Amino acid sequence: MPVETILLHQHQEELISDEVHEVMSHRPHWMIRKGNTVFFLVLMSLLVLTWFIRYPDMINGSARLVALHAPKLVSAKTGGKLMQLFITNEQQVQAGQPLGYMENTAQYNEVLQLQQWIEQALQAAQNNSYDILINHPLPPLYNLGELQSSYQTFQNELIETKQILASGYYQKKKAALQKDLQYLSALKHNTGQQQKLLAQDRQLQQKEYSAYESLAKDKVIAPLELNQYKSKLIAKDQSLQQINAQLTNSNLASHSKEKELLDLQKTILDQQQKFRSSLLVLKSEIEKWAQQYVLTAPENGKLLFVSPLQENELITAGQELFYIQPAATRIYAQLMAAQKGLGKVKAGQKVLLKVESYPSEEYGYLPGVVHYISNLPTRRDSFMVQVDLPQGLKTNYGKEFFFRNELSAQASIVTDNRKLFDRLPKQLHLMFQR
Q1: Quick one: 332 and 416 in the same domain?
Q2: How far apart, in whole angstroms, are the C-alpha atoms of residue 77 and residue 288?
Q3: Exposure check for the chain: N or C terminus, fewer CB within 10 A?
Q4: For residue 289, what pLDDT is reported?
Q5: Above pLDDT 70, what percent of the chain?
Q6: Residues 313 and 194 grouped into a single domain
Q7: What is Dmax (Cα atoms) for the chain?
């Protein structure tokens, strides 16, 4: 090798630094050497994942929760103090059961006592038994407030009814008239027997007269003797006429007694009707008072306080106090879906309900199933979709809502839960079209 070439090579090596020598002599990382392979494997893995990962199509809409037997709300009809509570929270109650009463001018115990007496009196009146007027007289009550005037009016009617029905005068008079009718009936029977006997005697007298009349024609006996027998026949006719007159008088007397008995019965019936009417009027007044001041359970179920309550607490008119939760309640959702994409909605599809009163981040969502789709649109050009709740008000987080009617929610209907792999060709096609 020429000396010049050697010197040139040495000079070039002197120009390259140690760092360059180090870089040139270092072996590249495996990621750099096999990057294409790794990229291909990652791409294939993503394609495999698209086969397993599903992405659903959603149709969104507003919904509300309703119930066939929704919890009934008990509100205060009037403002004032809550004088007394008869129940506790989460207690089972019956329909019509008093829950408490509001401040008013009447004493609740006296109104309740009057109401119980009226119920007994009505039951007795329906059975035409008025012994309660004597055996259980109307209790003297002086603290009925606004019901006091109605009570006094009824008390006056009650006094008149007792004089007619319960004192026994009209009943005794009725019994006496019925006894008179029995006597008249017996007298008529006796007179009738006498009439029959007289009629038979008259027939015999007629036969005897006819026989002597034939003898007189044959001039066997004198006409004067025939007149004697004729006189006897006339006497029998007179006796028979008197008996008939007695029967007529008996019939007239019976008719008079029956008329008097009918008038008496009409007086009794009229007074009974007046008494029942006055009872019903007073009962109606008490029911109006109870609707205004007494808090009553509208149906059977569990009672739940809307907020903590205590006696003598000031309550405003219309304030919500209790909910009555029925034992059996079917709750479902009514979803209003727009026309866009409605053709993809079918019965049996899953629905996700996010109730606005319960944030979905904390409580989760309610799973539902499409049950029915309306064929006619509403005024807002949307369609009603009924959604059943198989798990009731239990969310996917295992938490349960307390139902209040008309709770609002956002609903999403899962119309098509397709794989990402199935969607990829369509997305690529749309991308290349752009």
Answers
A1: yes
A2: 11
A3: C
A4: 92
A5: 76
A6: no
A7: 220
CA distance 37 to 148: 100
Beta-bridge partners for 315: 80
Residues 6 or more apart in contact with residue 344 via CB below 8 angstroms: 57, 59, 415, 416
Kindly tell me if the per-residue pLDDT of 170 is higher than 80. no
Q: Which structural domain, as residue segments, surrounds residue 424?
A: 56-68+328-433
Burial-class residue 89 by CB neighbours within 10 Å (0-12, 13-18, 19+): exposed
Cβ count within 10 A of residue 213: 14
Partners of 143 in the beta sheet?
none
pLDDT greater than 80 at residue 410: yes
The reply to whether 143 and 286 lie within a common domain is: yes
The domain spanning residue 87 has which CATH number? 2.40.50.100
Q: Are residues 212 and 63 in the same domain?
A: no
User: In whole angstroms, what is the distance from residue 259 CA to residue 184 CA?
Assistant: 14
Vertex 121, ends 101 and 290: CA angle to 5°? 15
Asked if 15 and 120 sit in the same domain, the reply is no
Neighbours of 180 (CB within 10 A): 17
Show which of 276, 292, 308 is a domain's final residue. 292
Model confidence, pTM: 0.57
pLDDT at residue number 168: 62
Residues 339 and 355 placed together within one structural domain of the fold: yes
Is residue 352 within 8 A of residue 395, CB to CB? The reply is no
Distance CA 257, CA 255 (A): 5
Which 3-state string (H, E, C) describes 281-318? Answer: HHHHHHHHHHHHHEEECCCCEEEEECCCCCCCEEECCC
Helix pair angle (223-293, 169-217), 10° resolution: 160
136 plus 184 within the same structural domain: yes
Classify residue 133 as exposed, middle or buried by CB count within 10 Å of its CB (0-12, 13-18, 19+): buried
Query: Residue range 83-102: average pLDDT?
Result: 90
For residues 46-75, give the mean pLDDT: 73
The two tokens of residue 368 are 């539902």
